[in-house]
Amino acid sequence: MVGCNTAPSGENGDTATGNGEPTTDRITLGTTLKPRTLDPADAYEIAGLNIIANLCDSLYTYKPSTTDLEPHLATEMPAISEDGLTYVIPIREDVVFHDGTALNAEAVKFSLDRFIQNGGKPSFLLADIVDTVEATGDYEVTIALKQPFAAFTALLAFAGTCAVSPEAYALGEGEFTPNEFVGSGPYKLAAFTSDSLRLDVNEDYWGEAPNNEGVDIQIYNDNSANLFNAFQTQAVDIAYQSLDPDQISNLLEGAEEGQWQAIEAPGTAVSFMALNRNQDPLDQPEVRKAVASIVNRDLINERVLKGQADPLYSLIPTSFTAYDPIFEEAYGDGNVEQAKQLLEEAGYTPDNPAVIEVWFPSGSATRSLAAQTLQAFAEQELEGSLQFDPKTVDGATFFQNIKKGIYPATMVFWYPDFLDADNYIQPFLSCAEGSEDEGCTQGGAATQGSFYYDERMNELIEAQRQAADESERLEVFGEIQERLAEDVPYVPLWQNKEYLFVQSGIEGVVMNASQDIPFSLIEK
User: Fold this and answer.
1) How far apart are the first and last CA of the chain?
2) H or E, element range at 450
């Protein structure tokens, strides 16, 4: 019924006039994603972080639609010591929380300590790096790190590290408040139910006032058909995450005809294949390189993704300066002759084929079609010398088994924890324990299922993390990607595109690189 209602009543009794024009300037957004929690110290999913980003303020943020950092609650970029271990951050003096509590250095310290000590899902982001947080002035915070980390400022732009009122939250392991929120952002949380949220304007906000009177979020609990229908019937002003490829294609056609607006933005999620170097036949570098050669990204994008993605030639997305399309240069797309030659070098022929099981979660229709496309293309072009065998299992079992080394190859995707090229490299290629003979036994490479081990790669990862000079850091990322293409523990496949569909007459809708929408810019 909600999906068919062209003018739903709001919780405050807002209605539409007889000709369909709204009587208020509230914005209605439809989504299939329900936040698990709104506690910033425990929120680790896009659904919750998108809401939190509009309810609170972090020390730093990104310039709209870029990965460029700028001060937010901080008044300047941090002053960093020469050894890269100390960050001194000045704080705004004109900010109050939604409950009237003053925001100062002690409140910022409380919020960061709580993020670390309460032990929520994202706590490791700071816990592994931060040594101490101190209020070194009424409006100055000094953060000491355990080791230098060049991407640390980007961590302070993660929505979960935002400032929350010390009067409304508790410090202590497991002390979370999932259904309430008291921050300092442009909106206050007015209601949070199983299928909706209501955000009202914060009249005491220190920054520019929102361009609307509030935001109502309708949750279509994992039902993209209901979201699709709700947008088409104008029950929602904006539709965002998640629609299936056919629905997106339909809405894109409607936008071309002028029925509504379509906003496209490069996503930060990447899809890739992980190749287990400990499993036959992928223990041979030539076979891994043959897989990289035969992958046809354009074919997958056309037949599976309906053009709703960009081919990806590195684990680092195109959004970052560090991106180097090294796999395009080394292997191309659907490079049949190169794949045949590499397989012959490894001793594989149509009479003695290399057979590779490719596993993925059973609930992922996209990965199922991608794996089938890869299978069919290899069968057609390589005459059976390389055979892919798609396999599925439920999602929970799939992710548990990856780090056990059960699967020869997997097809998965990655959403970044924070926006820095490091977050696409360190979690995949680093190895805390291992050897050339047995591969990685503990560390990122083991967790992601490639079991890749390379001591030089470990050195390079640490070098870019400690580099104070950005040009030096980019140079290191270049060498990292060269080694990635040479050793092929992973094969990058595609980078997702994100789509927002917006009714005519709605303006100011943009999507940040962190995939959140700044609601305050939207107006009717």
Assistant:
1) 25
2) none
Instruction: Kindly report the number of other CB atoms within 10 A of residue 30's CB atom.
Output: 25
CATH (domain of 358): 3.10.105.10
Specify if 101 maps to a domain. yes
236 and 292 share a domain? no
Q: Is there a contact between 426 and 286 (Cβ–Cβ < 8 Å)?
A: no
Beta-bridge partner residues of 389: 357
CATH of the domain at 40: 3.40.190.10
- Asked whether residue 21 is assigned to any structural domain, the reply reads no
Omega before residue 281 within 30° of 0, cis: yes
Q: How many CB atoms lie within 10 A of CB 128?
A: 11
Q: How many CB atoms lie within 10 A of CB 505?
A: 12
pTM of the model: 0.88
Report if residue 8 sits inside a domain. Answer: no
Task: Please give the angle made by the CA atoms of 358, 364 and 36, to the nearest 5 degrees.
Answer: 130
What residues make up the domain containing 90? 27-259+504-521
Question: Dihedral angle at the C-alpha atoms of 177, 182, 184, 189, nearest 10 degrees?
Answer: 100
Is the same domain home to 410 and 516?
A: no
Q: What is the pLDDT along the chain (524 residues), one digit of tens a residue?
A: 344 444 443 444 443 433 444 457 999 999 999 999 999 999 999 899 999 999 999 999 988 778 889 999 999 999 999 999 999 999 999 999 999 999 999 999 999 999 999 999 999 999 999 999 999 999 999 999 999 999 999 999 999 999 999 999 999 999 999 999 999 999 999 999 999 999 999 999 999 999 999 999 999 988 899 999 999 999 999 999 889 889 999 999 999 999 999 999 888 899 999 999 999 999 999 999 999 999 999 999 999 999 999 999 999 999 899 999 999 999 999 999 999 999 999 999 999 999 999 999 998 889 999 999 999 999 999 999 999 999 999 999 999 999 999 999 999 999 898 899 999 999 999 999 999 999 999 999 999 999 999 999 999 999 999 998 999 999 999 999 999 999 999 999 999 999 999 999 999 999 888 888 999 999 99
The contacts of residue 81 (CB under 8 Å, 6+ apart) are 87
User: How many CB atoms are located within 10 Å of the residue 18 CB?
Assistant: 7
Q: Look at strands 130-137 and 187-192 and give their pairing.
A: unpaired
Q: Taking the CB of residue 140, how many other CB atoms lie within 10 A of it?
A: 18
Residues 240, 285, single domain; the answer is no
Same domain, 86 and 133: yes
Give the helix/strand (H/E) hosting 328: helix 326-330
What amino acid occupies position 387? Q
In degrees, to the nearest 5, what angle opens at C-alpha 296 toward C-alphas 375 and 246?
80
Preceding amide of 271 cis, omega within 30? no
Which of 214, 218, 165 has its CA nearest to residue 196? 218
Half-sphere exposure of 481 (CA within 13 A, CB side): 26
Q: Is there a domain that residue 119 lies in?
A: yes
